[in-house]
Amino acid sequence: MAVAATKYSERVNVGRVERWLSMAAGGALAAYALKRRELPGGAAAIAGAALLYRGATGHCDVYHVLGINHANGESAREYGTGVLADRGSDTRAQLGGLRGIHVEESVTINRPLAELYRFWRDFENLPKFMNHLESVSTREEGVSHWTATGPAGMRVEWDARIINEVPNKVIGWQSLDGSTISTAGSVNFDEDPHGTRVTVHLQYNPPGGRLGAAVAWMFGEEPNQTIREDLRRFKQLMEAGEIPTTNGQPSGRR
Amino acid sequence: MKAVCWEGRGDVRVETVPDPTLLNQRDAIVRITSTAICGSDLHLYDGFIPTMQAGDILGHEFMGVVEDVGHGVTNLKKGDRVIVPFPIACGRCFFCTHDLYSCCDNSNPNAWMAEKFYGYTASGLFGYSHMLGGYAGGQAEYARVPFADVGPFKVPEHLSDDQVLFLTDIYPTGFMAAENCNIQPGDTVAVWGCGPVGQFAIRSAFLLGAGRVIAIDTVPERLMMANQGGAETLDSMDPDVFYKLRNMTGGLGPDACIDAVGMEAHGPHIDYLYDKVKTMAMMATDRISALRQAIHSCRKGGTVSVPGVYGGFLDKMPFGAAMNKGLTIKTGQTHVHKYLPRLLRYIESGAIDPSFVVTHRVSLEEAPHMYRTFRDKKDGCIKVVMKPH
After folding, report:
1. Which of A56, A180, B40, B261 is buried deepest, with most CB atoms within 10 A?
2. A34-72 per-position pLDDT tens digit
C-alpha cells in the first residue's frame, strides 16, 4: 500500500488548482465534442479527454519531459516564465505512460559543469554536434528558431521557448504552439566523480504526412541512438576539441 | 602512394591510393620509414576479425618522420622522428587521464558498432577493422595520425628504426602482459606463444623479477629464441603440457600464466578440433585452447594475463576453474602511451635491444608474399619489417 501511494504521488506533477481547471475544461470540451459529432468535434474530444486525464491523475506528459513539477513546493515560483524551477526529477522516474516518442540518454564528460552548461545554453552551438540540425538562431531572450534538414534537402523549422532554466542545473524547452513539430525536452547537468553527467530527455509527436516522414527520418529508426550519437559528439567536442573522423582518408576501394 | 590493402580473407595487395591529408586540427602526417606486420594482422588476414572492408589499408606498427601537422599540434614539427602507438587516444577523457589509453572514449568514429559487440567501445586502432575505428593503417608510404599531440613519441637519432619500431605495439604489449602478472621475486611464469609478443613477455617477466619462465610453442626457431631469452621450453603439441608444468613447479603450478596466442590457437587435444570445426562453421568466433590450458594450469590464487587478441564469445571457457582456484584474469589492448618513456629508457640503457625479433627486412611490395610466409610460419619467419621508402 505504501509503495502504491509513493508511486501515485511520484506521478503527480500538476498543481491542485490546475488539476481542477483541467477537469473543468476537459469536461466542457468533451461535452462540446459529443454535441458536434464531426471531425473538429473529434479533435476536441481527444483534447478534452487528455485534459480530463491530466486533471484526474495529476500527471502531465509534457511537464514530465520538461522536468517540471507544479505539484510540489509551490513556493519555488521564482522564474520569470511563471514556470516552476523545481527539477522534478522524481517525475521522470516513470516514463512508460508517455505518448509520442520519448528518449532519455546520458553521457559523462570530463569537463567542468559550468563550461558544458554555458556551451549548451548558447543554442546556436547545438548544430556543431547535432547532425540533423542545420541552425538554431535566437530570436529574443528565451525564444529560438530551429532549422533541421530532412530527406532530399527538405527542411523542418520550428520555434521553441525556454520554459525551465536553472543555471548550471537544467534547461527545458518546448516548441511554441502552432509549430510544425510538437517537441519538448530538457538537459540536466550533474556533478559526477568521473566528470559531469549530462542527461537529455526529449519528447516529440511526429506529425502526419510528408512532414511526419521528414521528422521520422531526422530522428532515425532508433531515436535513442540518434540522441546518443549527438551526445557522443558533444562529449568529443568538449573533451577532445574535435570530432574524430575518417572521412576523406585514403583506401584501396575503387 | 603505395599501401598494403586488405581485399578479403587471405588476400592482401599493394595498391596505389591517394596520399593522406590532414582532416582534423590535431592530425599529423607521417612519412613512414619502417612498418611491421603484427601477429594480430594475421587475424585480419585469416578473416577472424569482423567489420573489415575490401580496400582497407592495413598496419598498426609504424614509425617515420613528421611531414605536416594540424593547428592543434604544437609539440611536433616537420622533421621529427617518431614512433606511433597503435591505439589512437585523445589524451583528455577519463580513461586517457587514468593511463587507460587503449580505452579512450573519443577516438572511435564508429563507436556505435563496437558498442553493439562489446557494450562500450575501446579506442580506435590503426588499420584494424571498422568496428575499431576504420582508420587507414601504416603499411604504406604515409599515414595520417589523429591526436598527434598525444600519440607520436619522439625517438633519439642514435637508435636505429629496428631498435625503436616495436615500441609501437609488441614490446609494450609483452611488457604489459608481464606487468599484469603481478610478479613477485622468484615467481615462475608460463608463457603460451613464442611469437614476438611472447618473446617480449619472457624478457619483461625476467626484468620484473621472475625466477623462471617456461615458454610453450611448437615452432623450433621460436622455442630457440625463447631459450636464448632465458626461458625453459615445452612443446605445445605435447599432450602432457599440464603435467609437465605441474612437475616443473613442484606440484603447485605456475604463479602466473600468459596467453600470448589468442584467438587462433592450435593444440593437441580434442578441444582444438572442437573449436576448429565450430569456427569454420561460423558457430564460434575464437579458438581458445591456449587460454583454456593457461587457466587450467595456473596455480591457485595465481594470475592469468591475456595479451592475446580475442574477438567474440568464447565457447567452453573453463570459468569454473578460474573461480574455484581464485584466479585473477587481466587483459586488454595495450596502453602503449603509458609505457613509452620507461621502455625507451630500457632500450637506451642496453637492458634490451628489441631488434632481436626481426627475421625479415623487405620492401612494401613484398607484403602479400610476407603475409603468407608469416602466417604459415615458413622460412623461420618471426617478425617482418617493411621499408616503404
Report:
1. B261
2. 555 554 545 555 555 555 555 555 556 656 666 565 554
Residue B270 identity: I
Q: Which residues contact A237 (CB under 8 A, 6 or more apart)?
A: A128, A129, A243
The answer to whether A250 contacts B19, with C-beta atoms less than 8 Å apart, is yes
Q: Is A43 helix (H, G, I), strand (E, B) or coil?
A: helix
Chain A residues near any Cβ of chain B (below 8 Å): 108, 110, 194-195, 225, 228-229, 232, 235-236, 239-254
Asked if B134 and B109 touch (Cβ cutoff 8 Å), the reply is yes
Comparing B160 with B272, which gets the higher pLDDT?
B160
Q: Contact at 8 Å (CB) between B385 and B34?
A: yes
Cell of B103: 580505452
Tell me, yes or no, whether A253 lies in a domain. no
Q: Pairing between strand B360-363 and B256-259?
A: unpaired
Tally the residues of chain B.
389
Tens of pLDDT along B248-275? 999 999 999 999 999 988 989 988 888 8
Q: Using the beta-carbon criterion (under 8 Å), do A239 and B106 form an inter-chain contact? A: yes
The complex scores an ipTM of 0.93
Q: List the domain boundaries for chain B.
A: 2-169+335-387, 171-331
Decide if B110 contacts B103 (C-beta within 8 A). Answer: no
Percent of chain A with pLDDT over 70: 58
> Alpha-carbon distance A50 to A61, whole Å?
10
- Over chain B, what is the mean pLDDT? 97
| Chain B nearest-CA residue for A224 | B112
Task: Write out pLDDT tens, residues B306-362.
Answer: 999 998 889 999 999 999 999 999 999 999 999 999 999 999 999 999 999 999 999
Q: How far is CA A122 from the centre of its chain?
A: 17
Domain B2-169+335-387, CATH among 3.40.630.30, 3.10.129.10, 3.90.180.10, 3.90.25.10: 3.90.180.10
Residue B360, C-beta contacts closer than 8 angstroms, at least 6 positions apart: B370, B373, B374, B379, B381, B383, B384, B385
Q: Are A107 and A204 part of one and the same domain?
A: yes
Q: How many domains would you assign to chain A?
A: 2
Residues B171-331, CATH architecture: 3-Layer(aba) Sandwich (3.40)
A152 and A105 in a common domain: yes
Q: Residue A150 belongs to what domain range?
A: 100-239
Tens of pLDDT along A81-105?
Answer: 333 333 433 233 333 334 577 889 9
Which strand ranges, in their side-by-side order, compose the sheet holding B2-8?
A: B11-16, B2-8, B56-57
Phi, psi for A215 (deg, rounded to 5): -65, -40
Cβ neighbours of A35 (radius 10 Å): 9
Q: Would you list the DSSP string of B169-222?
A: THHHHHHHHHHTTTPPTT-EEEEE--SHHHHHHHHHHHHTT-SEEEEEES-HHH
Is residue A15 domain-resident? yes
Between B13, B18, B147, which is nearest A250 by CB?
B18
Cβ atoms of A176 and A160 closer than 8 Å: yes
- A129 and A201 in a single domain? The answer is yes
Q: CB B277: neighbour CB atoms within 10 A? A: 11
Q: Do B105 and A235 touch (CB under 8 A)?
A: yes
Short-list A31, A70, A35, CA closest to A48: A31
